[in-house]
Write a structure and sequence with these properties.
single chain; about 170 residues; alpha+beta; ph1033 like fold; six-stranded mixed β-sheet; 6 strands; about 30% strand
């Protein structure tokens, strides 16, 4: 009986470690769902392409910090879709994680997630508008302090405020 109890305790410890590895705490954003900003240059992959395909693998991320964030993503997490590297920078819609992080088939040392289309916003919510709230409601938003990071966590408050700026109902 002692061996069985020891085995059970060992299995529980292993399962606990798996859970920590599969979903690392990203600076206190631990409650489900989590909220993210995904950036893409529209010449590479646009919200229009996302809408047409409905689901896609979010791949090609080759930054260690962004990889950490991808690995933390779980099914149901919400992501604002941001167009970068173009004339009209800004949030253009929303997607949701449909398959949690898994190794990138092109290089297993990196991670990918699958996302599904949620909505395309009728207007771009410009970066300039977001910057106007940098010292108030959007204080601490990574996009405003680390603009080059392609996958960024955000708080529920930031997510809801950005949606409200775009006239979207949360």
């Amino acid at each position: 009986e002692g061996a069985v109890m020891g085995k059970r305790a060992c299995e529980q410890e292993v399962q606990s470690k798996r859970q920590r590895v599969r979903r690392p705490d990203v600076e206190g954003i631990g409650a489900k769902p989590q909220y993210w900003l995904l950036k893409s240059e529209p010449s590479d992959y646009s919200i229009e392409a996302m809408e047409a395909e409905q689901t896609t693998v979010w791949d090609g991320v080759r930054n260690a910090a962004a990889r950490k964030h991808l690995r933390a993503m779980q099914v149901g997490d919400r992501c604002l879709f941001y167009h970068s590297g173009c004339k009209h920078l800004g949030v253009v819609g929303e997607v949701a994680v449909s398959v949690a992080a898994y190794p990138d088939p092109a290089d297993a040392s990196w991670a990918v997630v699958d996302v599904r289309f949620v909505e395309r916003w009728p207007e771009v919510l410009p970066l300039a508008t977001l910057k106007a709230y940098a010292n108030a409601e959007l204080s601490g938003l990574r996009l405003l302090s680390q603009p080059r990071l392609s996958v960024q966590p955000m708080s529920l408050a930031h997510y809801q405020f950005i949606r409200s700026l775009a006239g979207r109902h949360t």
